[in-house]
Specification:
This protein is elongated. The protein is built from 8 helices and 15 strands. By secondary structure, the chain is of the alpha/beta class. The two termini are about 40 Å apart. The strands form 4 sheets. A 5-stranded parallel β-sheet has the order 2-1-3-4-5, sandwiched between helices. It folds into 2 domains: about 5-135, Rossmann fold (3-Layer(aba) Sandwich), CATH 3.40.50.2300; about 150-250, LytTr DNA-binding domain (OB fold (Dihydrolipoamide Acetyltransferase, E2P), Beta Barrel).
Length: about 250
């Protein structure tokens, strides 16, 4: 059987290098590539790969946070690709995990793939997932959820009720909150806002957009795995989330 692999790295050249080296492994099938942690979470849950080449350092969501978010879909084998020094990597080896220290040589890559192959053929391979969770430690307590947003303006602070929010869009180091009548600018990252908004009411549909679930009118499947979310106000946004996942999310609201 084919080993199903996912490549996660925010650098295009790094992803390309891993893919080219995997092309030389006849029993490995690349099921996808992720440009960041957010895409990685979605693809791991959607494809359930056996093996993930996971970059440790990525903007917004690092490799460790990716794994904390997918405990139910944890791949059997994780191969970290990292620029960490040898002392930090000793912790990974102690937990029977493997890593590629950038820049790595093709011979080192082949050794790593063979190690993954051996683990996957071992009936105890699934224990590596629990070892990885032990390495990561207990996930941090969920962030306190907001009941409304505080928006600072010259001379005052106004509050925006969550039900008033239609969408939140990234704008560099800021986030723009759209309420329909007004737009409010916050100096917050999308990751921070997402962690503090109630997940039963808000959904991050791509790297740059969070939507109020109550504002979604319909879902439209598109080509090449891309779908679109249509809001009640007529605005349309692309999303890489599978239609089935979105549908289930909306049905259980």
């Amino acid at each position: 059987m084919k080993i199903r692999a996912l490549i996660v790295d925010d650098e295009p050249l790094a992803r390309q290098r891993v893919r080219l080296l995997l092309d030389e492994e006849p029993d490995v099938e690349v099921v996808g590539e992720s440009r960041d942690g957010f895409e990685a979470v979605v693809q791991i849950q959607a494809t359930r790969p056996d093996l993930v080449f996971l970059d440790v350092q990525m903007p917004e969501m690092d490799g460790f946070e990716v794994l904390r978010r997918v405990p139910q879909a944890m791949p059997s084998v994780i191969i970290f690709t990292t620029a960490y020094d040898q002392h930090a990597l000793q912790a990974f080896e102690a937990h029977a995990l493997d890593y590629l220290l950038k820049p790595f040589k093709p011979t080192r890559f082949k050794e790593t793939v063979q190690r993954a192959r051996n683990l996957l053929s071992d009936k105890h391979a699934l224990t590596n997932a629990s070892r990885l969770l032990a390495l990561l430690g207990q996930a941090p307590a969920p962030a306190a959820q907001l009941t409304r947003l505080a928006v600072k303006t010259p001379g005052k602070v106004c509050f925006v009720e969550l039900e008033q929010i239609q969408t939140i869009e990234a704008a560099g180091k800021y986030a723009v909150v759209h309420t329909g009548k007004e737009n409010h600018v916050l100096r917050e990252t999308m990751g921070s806002l997402e962690s503090h908004l109630p997940p039963q009411r808000f959904l991050r549909i791509n790297r740059s957009v969070i939507v109020n679930i109550d504002q979604i009118r319909e879902l439209q499947p598109m080509f090449k795995g891309e779908n679109r979310v249509i809001l009640k106000n007529g605005k349309s946004y692309p999303t890489t989330r599978p239609i089935r996942e979105l549908q289930q999310k909306l049905e259980f609201q």
